[in-house]
Hints:
This protein is of the alpha+beta class. It has a single domain, classed as DD-peptidase/beta-lactamase superfamily (Beta-lactamase). The protein contains 12 helices and 8 strands. It has helices at 7-22, 73-84, 86-92, 120-129, 135-150, 158-167, 169-181, 188-199, 205-216, 231-244, 250-256, 293-306, and strands at residues 46-51, 56-60, 66-67, 155-156, 201-203, 261-263, 268-273, 277-282. The chain has a 5-stranded antiparallel β-sheet. Strand 6 and strand 7 (268-273) form a beta hairpin. The longest helix has 16 residues, at 7-22. The model has no long low-confidence stretch (mean pLDDT 96). The structure holds 6-diazenyl-5-OXO-L-norleucine. 6-diazenyl-5-OXO-L-norleucine binds next to loops. Substrate binds at residues 70, 120, 164, 171, 195, 247, 265.
Amino acid sequence: MSSPRSGVDVVTEALAEVHGRYGSLSDGRVADYIPQLAFADRDCFGLALMSMDGHGYRAGRCGVSFTLQSLTKPFVLALALAELGPDDVGRSVGAEPSGEAFNAISLDAVTGRPANPMINAGAIAVTALVPATSPAERFSRILECLGRFAGRTLYVDEDVYRSEVETGHRNRALAYLMRGTGVLRGDPVQAVDTYFRQCSVRATVTDLAVMGATLANGGTNPVTGERVVPEPVALQVLSVMAMCGMYDAAGSWMLHVGLPAKSGVSGGLVAVSPARFGIALHSPLLDAAGNPVRGVAALRELSERFGLHLM
Ligand code: DON
């Protein structure tokens, strides 16, 4: 008689299965509007899950690091919320889906605020809110916070950072517009520079799963045991991710997968099953909405198979 399979076996097999099934999808394009991102290995595909008891599961290439890009946005929002509270943050950025591209000039006609913190304008405003006495200190606080979410020290990819500085004129324009509306205080060029550095922080799929698991666990890192942000902050960040984390495909993602999530142009994705686990992946081939083709397919299947949808 065969022995019953443990929960660990079931999760390990499920990850291996979806990794195998969707790893051969070759649709989609690697982002190249930041020139350094075009060098990404299009075949790369890693999938990792981190549970609340600190147990990690992996399939494929989970140790390869990539720049987090917009995947930093929820975690820097968490830092700003923890430091300033929701009212202060809410004066600079809204919490409504914009229905527009992530780099859109999406500023409220009356308040001048960006629609939400997951689009570039909102993220730049949030980055600039992090309390510090200098831009260098602000970035080091951001880097340190990202590291506490991941449970290890993270580093900036200087080549990607320079590539963003050289090509990120639209982000600078957004920052100047927000300086004009009064949403952004201080130097817009410095604000965008800090945002470029933040986007250029490298992490692995395994790191990203731990970062997601920390949000799932109410703000306490399940691997290190460290409280990174208070529980209401984690809840607020997950709510924003649920509404605005997957670009223009946030609605279809919520219909079919049903978990708070965030993606980034380098092909990373993190999704959170509250009080259960964080799951992350990296696969640079992106669909028309900017989400990783293989990852969306894999998570859709996992959600259906294990009833992960929150509704
Ligand atoms: O600012 C940019 O365009 C990139 N550094 C990040 C874009 C990204 O990942 C889009 N996410 N919502």
